[in-house]
Design goal:
Elements: H1 3-6, E1 7-11, H2 16-26, E2 34-37, E3 43-46, E4 55-59, H3 65-80, E5 85-90, H4 110-120, E6 125-129, E7 145-149, H5 152-162, E8 167-171, H6 177-187, E9 191-193, E10 196-200, E11 203-206, E12 217-225, H7 229-240, E13 245-253, H8 257-265, E14 271-274, E15 286-289, H9 292-303
C-alpha cells in the first residue's frame, strides 16, 4: 500500500483549520471526526471510518483544558481501534512555561505533568513547535519518539519578505538569546538581549538594553506573547536605548484583546507570528505565517510517505 494512502489525518477542534492546510501540503485527505454533545455536556467522538492498521496523524494545539483532553482522547481512541501508529503534532503546548516548580512552593509544574498525560496515552511519536523549554521532551520513560520543530527558516523568510533594512534582533532575556543569535546569523544582522527577571505569575522586570539598537529598527523576538508585559517593557528599553522604531516577532501569539490594545497604544503596528495558536490570522496588527509547510515536511520525512510499501 502507498504510505500516503495509509495516513489518516485528524485534528482536535482547536487545530482543524491548520490540519486542513497540513493535509493540503501532504496531498492527503483531512478526516473530520464525528462529534456530538450530550445534554449533560459530555462530548461524543467517533472515527468516521475503519482506522485499524492505519498511520493516524493528530494535529492538536492545547490552548485550554478542553483541547488538551480532546488530544488525549484522540490518541487513546486510535490505540483502542488498533491503529498501526499514532502520531501527534502539537503546534502550541499549553502550560509550556510551567516546566518546573520553585523549591517549597507547592506549585504543580503543569508543563511536565500535562505532557506526561499525553505520553501516557501511548502515542508513537509527538512533535512540538518552538517549545518554551525542551525539558518536556523528556517527560516520558523513553517509549515515545519526540521532536521539537523550529520555525527559524519560516521566521527568517517572513522578515526578508517584509523588506525592512538596518535592523537588529532583540531578545527580552538572556535565556532566549541563543535562539535570537541563531536567527541573526541566518539574517546576517546584529543582535542583543535585555535582562528579564520574573518575580510573580505573569509579572516580570526587563532591565537595561545595549546601545546596539541605536538609530535602528529593533525587532524584539520571543517564543510567545501572552499578556505582553515583558515584551512591552522591552519596547520601552529599546526606545530608551535609541531605537528609531520597534517591531515584534513571536511564534505563539496568545495575545488576549487587552494585550493587543496595549501594543497598539505603545505605537506597535506590526506583530509577526505564526498560526500555531488557534484563530490567529493576519489583520491590522498581526502578520501571520503558517507552520503547515514545516509540519508537512516533518511528517513526510518521519512517515516516509513517498515510498511504496508492500500490501
Amino acid at each position: 500500500m502507498n504510505r500516503r494512502v495509509n495516513i489518516l489525518l485528524v485534528a482536535n477542534q482547536a487545530s482543524t483549520e491548520l490540519a486542513r492546510s497540513v493535509a493540503a501540503h501532504l496531498r492527503v485527505s483531512f478526516t473530520e471526526m464525528v462529534r456530538k454533545r450530550f445534554a449533560d455536556g459530555e462530548l461524543y467522538h467517533a472515527f468516521p471510518c475503519d482506522v485499524s492498521g492505519r498511520d493516524v496523524v493528530i494535529v492538536a494545539a492545547t490552548p485550554d483544558d478542553s483541547a488538551h483532553q480532546e488530544l488525549v482522547d484522540l490518541i487513546a481512541g486510535a490505540r483502542f481501534w488498533n491503529c498501526r501508529t499514532v502520531n501527534a503534532v502539537i503546534p502550541y503546548l499549553g502550560y509550556s512555561t510551567m516546566e518546573r516548580a520553585r523549591p517549597d512552593s507547592g506549585e504543580i509544574p503543569k508543563g511536565i505533568t500535562r505532557t506526561r498525560q499525553i505520553f501516557r496515552a501511548r502515542p508513537d511519536y509527538v512533535a512540538f513547535i518552538d517549545l518554551h523549554s525542551e525539558a518536556v521532551l523528556h517527560a516520558h520513560a523513553g517509549e515515545v519518539k519526540t521532536m521539537n520543530l523550529w520555525t527559524d527558516n519560516l521566521a527568517v523568510r517572513k522578515i526578508q519578505e517584509i523588506g525592512v533594512e538596518d535592523y537588529v534582533l532583540v531578545s527580552p532575556d538572556y535565556g532566549f538569546s541563543k535562539r535570537v543569535a541563531r536567527l541573526a546569523g541566518l539574517l546576517g544582522c546584529p543582535h542583543t538581549a535585555g535582562n528579564k527577571d520574573r518575580y510573580d505569575v505573569d509579572k516580570t522586570i526587563v532591565g537595561q538594553l545595549s546601545s546596539a539598537v541605536r538609530d535602528r529598527l529593533a525587532i524584539i523576538c520571543d517564543d510567545m506573547i501572552r499578556t505582553g508585559g515583558s515584551m512591552l517593557q522591552t519596547v520601552d528599553r529599546c526606545y530608551e536605548a535609541g531605537a528609531k522604531d520597534v517591531m515584534i516577532m513571536a511564534t505563539h501569539l496568545v495575545l488576549p484583546e487587552e494585550a493587543r490594545a496595549r501594543f497598539k497604544a505603545r505605537g506597535i503596528n506590526r506583530i509577526i507570528g505564526s498560526d500555531t495558536y488557534p484563530g490567529r490570522q493576519s489583520d491590522d496588527l498581526l502578520d501571520i505565517y503558517s507552520v503547515a509547510p514545516l509540519i508537512a515536511e516533518e511528517l513526510k520525512h518521519y512517515l516516509r510517505i513517498e515510498q511504496e510499501l508492500p500490501v
